[in-house]
């Protein structure tokens, strides 16, 4: 499940993080020019002009007939954030209040439908 920036660099798509005139490119394995920032996470900073197709990717879904964004997954469960904007619905579903107007919860992956990526 992806939720974040992506871009192409040298013909390959990477998770990225824009940073002004530069872009931080991430990958899970070591490579020339990439520095380990933690186990299984390597970064390389390149000029923004060297990347193509910068976009934000979100994974969306429907759970119990309501719209959600998928934030993560673990052991057959999806961490989801409600995007329907109706507090009574969020409360009835037992979602946690994460912030003002932001409701999240864990959904069994088997109950989620319409799982798809959207590029913004």
Care to describe what's here?
- Helix content is 5%, strand content 65%.
- It is elongated, with a radius of gyration of 17 Å.
- The protein has 120 residues and is mainly beta.
- The longest helix has 6 residues, at 87-92.
- It starts with a strand and ends with a strand.
- Strands 1, 2, 3, 4, 5, 6, 7, 8, 9, 10 and 11 form an 11-stranded antiparallel sheet that branches.
- It is built from 1 helix and 11 strands, in the order E-E-E-E-E-E-E-E-H-E-E-E.
Give a nutshell description of this structure.
With 120 residues, the chain is mainly beta. It has 1 helix and 11 strands, in the order E-E-E-E-E-E-E-E-H-E-E-E. The protein has one helix spanning 87-92, and strands at residues 3-9, 12-19, 22-27, 35-38, 41-47, 52-63, 66-74, 77-82, 96-99, 102-108, 112-119.
List the main descriptive attributes of the protein structure presented here:
eleven-stranded antiparallel beta sheet; elongated; 5% helix; 120 residues
List the helices and strands and how they pair.
Layout: E1 3-9, E2 12-19, E3 22-27, E4 35-38, E5 41-47, E6 52-63, E7 66-74, E8 77-82, H1 87-92, E9 96-99, E10 102-108, E11 112-119
Antiparallel strand pairs: 1-2, 1-6, 2-3, 3-5, 4-5, 6-7, 6-11, 7-8, 8-10, 9-10
Radius of gyration, taken over Cα atoms and rounded to an integer in Å = 17 Å
Assembly category: single chain
Total number of distinct structural domains: 2
User: What is the 3D shape?
Assistant: elongated
How far is the N terminus from the C terminus? 15 Å
> How many E strands?
11
List the uncertain runs. none
Largest sheet: 11 strands, antiparallel
Tell me what portion of residues adopts beta-strand conformation. Answer: over 45%
Q: What is the tally of helical segments?
A: 1
- In percent, how helical is the residue content? under 10%
Order of helices and strands: EEEEEEEEHEEE
Which structural class do you get from the secondary structure elements?
A: mainly beta
Question: Average pLDDT across residues?
Answer: 96
